[in-house]
Design a protein that fits this description.
It is a single chain. This protein is an alpha/beta fold. It is about 50% helix and about 15% strand. It contains 30 helices and 20 strands. The protein has an 8-stranded mixed beta sheet, with helices on both faces. Helix 29 crosses helix 30. The two termini are about 35 Å apart. The structure holds nicotinamide-adenine-dinucleotide. The site of nicotinamide-adenine-dinucleotide has 22 residues, from helix 14 and helix 17.
């Protein structure tokens, strides 16, 4: 079956793209060859005066080039050839000698947008499903089928850089405002409008465009202005990537090169840079994470034949504090559920509802939802101190104080007020779910749903299952978590679950470093250089020192000496230094803004002013503490696969995605190298670094976590 079907009427060829056997359209090698032949035919056919390109898929125009093909590339030469072939195809649109109109509904991304940019005219639907963008840099590559050339020529350098360098995807309305799209229409008239435009173009009409408005033109046409734009963008990119992500800078250079030396030279530059990036480690890791996230979206969360998830329409959140209110807000905003927020205390309910509504207001302000949506969603949110509505609740998420007795009372009460099919979830960060489940008559309905703060921003959800949790309960919690927009990993009920378990020794090590006299600034800087978004000391302040002390105690109890907390942290909490929330932690905060390091905190901790620890050891101690614990945890089957572990670390802690995750990183260093380093650290800094037995076994057998690279 061909992927393209062409039909000619009144001199206009309607070309419908419908890739067989796939839910989306993408540009594969076969698609490219077929389209090339088709374009040749259309060019030669004298009856045809113009072409309309439209998709046969419901929600996709063209989602991009086939990522699988680009992953299979073995060397630069192959990569360059692949992308040059793409350029030839896309140039063919431009050189057809007949106008081509792209009729865009649904995702128009990457190579799909590059094709649309080479068309003569673009009509898009104003549907929320229609999005246009060049996400390539997010995969560590650059738009190399002319995207770095045609977008700046169409909408101006500044607007184009804004999209390309961040790998942005824009809703159709925004794309229209920027001039990426010529006309915005209701889906019902897309085809009609596109063929009208094709006819007008065939008759010689040309749209007038101004390449990014007057300001854009002034800057773009003036070499001096352009130089300023590029040098500012370059500085921003360097600051943002910390030198760890080469793609945005390469894209910037490709844009600059093309504007200076012309389209052909620009395309040549694009293909060379693409080739170099496509076979590099950064891109390899970013693509692995992309594939892992995509696979997780389809993973039901249980092994073998998965039962159907239960419908979740009514959700109750018990505990309207910091976490509960945010969970309620997101369950409404993203989950679209009817949410009842309950607390023991009336003021807390009122505060909680206000906080939950704030999440909706923020969405409205950012124009992510319409006023109508805002009102509709706000109406789904209610609260109280009673049990109203609990009888029809499908899922209860508990977020009361972190205290086992309180949770037991709350769970008993909940069980008395809900239907037998209702799922009972806890958002506890440290208490074993199995222990919470002891309070109820039917522990098979109990599960953990561990959200991260701030709930509306953090992408990860750990779903924690005990030996007794029913499979239906797991698949339902996983599915609802996904509906809330989260990347969900299923974790075995064990102390610290996955994320806090591997985070604890890392944060603890930061404390040890302070006690060894290493400066706060050095510790945080070294980890930011490694690629974390914030350093561990700043992170401790964010988490809250009280929360952290409590979590450490649990892990210490569970795992013994290697997790022994650093002396002195308790003194800080007694002194009222809880981190950002109290305005004082290791850093000082004024009006919510982080100011400098608070030296008096270091006195409380008993930290000396000088250190003998070299910077390289700072990095090593922190990172290897985390790697070692990740290895131990996977040996304990805390996560179901290395994939889940790496995704948890990247999305839950901010482990640098360009390194692929802690387990990938161990594989790349090699288990023997990791074991040797840990042995060295043990000798110099103590037994907490003793290599995990699994690493020693792997070193011996030259084994890896991932069977292939
Ligand atoms: P919080 O103190 O802000 O909120 C707790 C709320 O529970 C309060 O409003 C309190 O009035 C209410 N409450 C207490 N007893 C109750 C009862 N018997 N019935 C109904 N409501 C009751 O606490 P938080 O930071 O939102 O934490 C809540 C849970 O989330 C804890 O289990 C915590 O470990 C977990 N958690 C917290 C974070 C975080 O960053 N704060 C992250 C992940 C998980």
């Amino acid at each position: 079956m061909p992927s393209f079907v062409a039909a000619v009427q009144d001199g206009i060829a309607r070309v419908e793209f419908n890739l067989e056997g796939e839910s989306i359209n993408k540009i594969t090698r076969d698609v490219r060859l077929e389209l090339e032949r088709l374009l040749d035919k259309l060019q030669a056919d004298a009856r045809i005066r113009a072409v309309v390109l439209i998709s046969g898929k419901p929600d996709t125009f063209i989602a991009g080039a086939d990522i699988e093909e680009f992953v299979a590339l073995e060397n630069r030469d192959q990569a360059r050839k692949l992308v040059q072939a793409g350029q030839v195809l896309i140039n063919q649109f431009e050189d057809l000698g007949k106008p081509v109109v792209a009729a865009i509904h649904g995702a128009c991304l990457g190579g799909g947008l590059e094709a649309a940019l080479a068309c003569t005219y673009r009509v898009a639907t104003d549907d929320p499903k229609t999005n246009l963008g060049l996400p390539e840099v997010q995969l560590g590559i650059i738009p190399a089928a002319g995207g770095c050339q045609r977008l700046p020529r169409l909408i101006g350098v500044r607007a184009a850089l804004d999209i390309i360098l961040a790998g942005k995807t824009l809703p159709a309305k925004r794309a229209f405002k920027l001039g990426m799209v010529d006309e915005l229409v209701h889906p019902a008239i897309l085809e009609e409008v596109a063929s009208q435009a094709a006819k007008r173009l065939a008759d010689g009409w040309r749209p007038s465009r101004n390449g990014g408005g007057v300001a854009g033109l002034l800057l773009d046409k003036n070499p001096l202005g352009r130089r300023v734009v590029f040098s500012q963008a370059k500085k921003q990119v360097e600051k943002k990537t910390g030198g760890n992500y080469p793609a945005p800078l390469a894209a910037l250079e490709a844009v600059e090169h093309g504007l200076r030396y012309g389209l052909d030279a620009g395309l040549d530059h694009e293909s060379a840079r693409f080739a170099e990036l496509a076979v590099g480690d950064v891109s390899k890791h970013l693509v692995q994470i992309f594939f892992a996230t995509t696979a997780l979206k389809k993973d039901p969360g249980v092994a073998g034949a998965a039962p159907e998830p239960r419908p979740v329409n009514n959700v109750a959140v018990v505990g309207a504090g910091f976490m509960g209110s945010a969970i309620a807000g997101v369950a409404v905003q993203r989950g679209g559920a009817d949410v009842r927020l309950r607390d023991a205390n009336v003021e807390a309910v009122a505060r909680g509802l206000t906080a939950a509504r704030k999440i909706l207001q923020h969405q409205l302000k950012r124009r992510r939802i319409t006023k109508y949506d805002f009102q509709r969603l706000s109406a789904l949110l209610s609260g109280g101190v009673d049990w109203a509505g609990f009888g029809r609740t499908d899922l209860v998420i508990e977020a009361v104080f972190e205290d086992l007795d309180v949770k037991h009372t709350v769970f008993r009460d909940i069980e008395d007020h809900v239907a037998p099919s209702c799922i009972l979830a806890s958002n506890t960060s440290t208490i074993p779910i199995g222990r919470i489940a002891q309070a109820v008559r039917d522990p098979s309905r109990v599960i953990g749903m561990h959200f991260f703060s701030p709930v509306e921003k953090m992408p990860l959800l750990e779903v924690i299952v005990t030996g007794e949790t029913a499979a239906t309960v797991t698949v339902t919690a996983v599915q609802f978590g996904r509906r809330m927009g989260k990347t969900v990993i299923v974790v075995r009920d064990s102390p610290g679950f996955w994320v806090n378990r591997i985070l604890a020794p890392y944060l603890n090590e930061a404390g040890h470093l302070l006690r060894d006299g290493v400066a706060v600034e050095t510790i945080d800087r070294e980890m930011r250089t490694f690629g974390f978004p914030v350093g561990p000391i700043a992170l401790l302040d964010e988490i809250g020192l009280d929360v952290s002390v409590k979590a450490s105690a649990v892990l210490h109890e569970a795992f013994g000496e290697r997790m022994a907390p650093v002396a002195g942290l308790g003194k800080m909490t007694k002194d009222g230094r809880l981190g950002r929330k109290s305005g004082r932690g290791f850093y000082r905060y004024e009006k919510g803004k982080k100011k400098g390091v608070d030296r008096t905190a270091l006195d409380l901790l008993g930290a000396p002013a000088e250190t003998a620890v070299p910077d390289a050891d700072v990095t090593r101690r922190l990172i290897f503490a985390m790697l070692n614990e990740a290895a131990r945890a996977i040996d304990d089957d805390v996560v179901r696969s290395p994939r889940d572990g790496d995704i948890g670390a990247v999305f839950g802690i901010g482990f640098p995605p360009f390194r692929g995750g802690p387990l990938r990183y161990i594989d790349e260093l090699g288990a023997s190298q990791v074991t040797a380093r840990l042995a060295e650290l043990t000798e110099r800094y103590g037994d907490r670094f003793a290599p995990a037995p699994i690493l020693e076994r792997m070193a011996e057998a030259s084994d890896r976590f991932y069977p292939t690279g």
